[in-house]
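Example 3.2
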Amino acid sequence: MLSVDNIRVDFGGRNLFHDVSFIVNKRDRIALVGKNGAGKSTLLKIIAGFQQPTEGAVSKPRDYTVGYLPQVMNHTDGRTVFQEAELAFEHIHEMEARLAAMNNELAERTDYESEEYKQLIEEYTHLNELYTMMGGSHYEAEIEKTLQGLGFRRSDFERATNEFSGGWRMRIELAKLLLQHPDILLLDEPTNHLDIESIQWLEQFLARSSSSVLLVSHDRAFLNAVTNRTIEISCGRIYDYKLSYDKFVETRKERREQQIRAYENQQKEIADTKEFIEKFRYKPTKAVQVQSRIKQLEKMVPIEIDEEDTSRLRLRFAPATRSGNYPIICNGAKKSFGNHTVFDNVNFTINRGEKVAFVGRNGEGKTTLVRCILKEIEHEGEITIGHNVQIGYFAQHQAQLLDERLTVFQTIDNVATGDIRLRIRDILGAFMFGGEASDKPVKVLSGGERSRLAMIRLLLQQMNLLILDEPTNHLDMQSKDVLKEAIRDFDGTVIVVSHDRQFLDGLVTKVYEFGDGKVREHLGGIYDYLATKNAANINEALQTAKAATPGDATKSVNENRLSYEAEKQLQKQRRKLERLVEESESAVNELEAAIAAMEELMSTIEGSTQQNFTKYASLKKQLADAMNDWEKRMEELENLN
């Protein structure tokens, strides 16, 4: 049993929470909830022993073990995935070495009747039983089972950990933690880097585990599936409910309504008492009653109402400048790492203003294709970025890349330009960083706060193609809804990489499914996509795609429409038009640059000549002709597609 006793934490001159006391019993499954910045991650760090409270203590038995998965961690290189996971069993290797040494000693000694020899046999027997009980003879099978449950393939086991993204490396750390079977698991947003299949496996693992669990998560379904108790941090205090999350929400609402009624009654009583005091303050015959009412007022304990986060994440992206009709064209794109092909022969065109989703199991290439589009990594085939495309990118790891030495205000001040610098405080306030919160150092921010700060940085960029890679990680339910509305109102093009079905619903009009090295196009929203798969959720749809044969209706968009010869001719014509479009774009860019230079020259006294005005008019006409050619060729390409 673990006991949290009267914990108080002060930060930056303000109290984060106080008088926090509760007991974690064996096999408790506790959800730790509260608005972003309430102190959930701080409390987990204190229980894990990584941070000291201002007051109070955490008590636990001497041999009680704690496993902690933070939102952000430092990784070490130099091992394979399997070797890294095997570190969870270092104690097993120590026991093996001790057993081997004792076995050698028993073989060499001949004093069979001595007390020392008998004691050595007893120690060996006890240690061997402990070794067997702790799974020493089959721990490799347990490692394999856990890694596969979290989405790794057998072929991944011998790959170096530094070949994997931050999300996958977080899975390795989670595997190590689960394999240690600690007395209590402290999990801070464990589902952020998991796909739906892995989340379901984790739910089942925690249900079978003998460990107690204390977790922070914004995944409502996960909380309901795993937890049977909810502890809320609100107004600097905690409220302990022996209820699952959904039932807690209902009960909390009822409690708040009771608090409001009690508060209103108390305010009326205070007003009446003050009125009596003022009315009879100077009447000698009422002096005793007046003094009694004054003391009564002084002793009255104000009723607090649980805070309700009514602040809104008012997200509004800057108006997008007009890009070409086709911001992204993929033609035979392929990416491999060594002998492993992530995807091959990817062909699609994203039109200006479209909002599309990339879905697929982790490791199928969604983020890899995004990185190819961003030209962060090399690839085979063609990925063409259209005319005047300005990309804004939000990655899963961007919140972790913020400079921890800066404050919230400095982080935004460093990227803000022009008149926007005069409104930084207003913008931060709209994102719930108002007042003193804008002076908080980045290093003390929670995962949700870091994500909001990274989103503000993105907000200040001028862009017309928005690429969001798992944007809802670390955002609470309300913030997800507001972000969704902002993306829906954005007048540019959007690519969303997400497993969140509710977030994608009503947002995207096209779905690209990644699986088995292919990218398949599905017209319509996320529920239209699920309907074509006869699936209730994305996980079922992806399983259907995995089991599909080459003759199924899930073949890639180009494979199921045209014969081989017709497709070959179409590709040839498309490449020709794309080359002509590229030439037109180059001509437009050159003419625009020439006109800009001429305008700058004509703004001077020396450049204000009739010859320059004539040349300027000629350039403007050439630009108009070039724009007409570009639009005509783009229209031909659009019709062909």
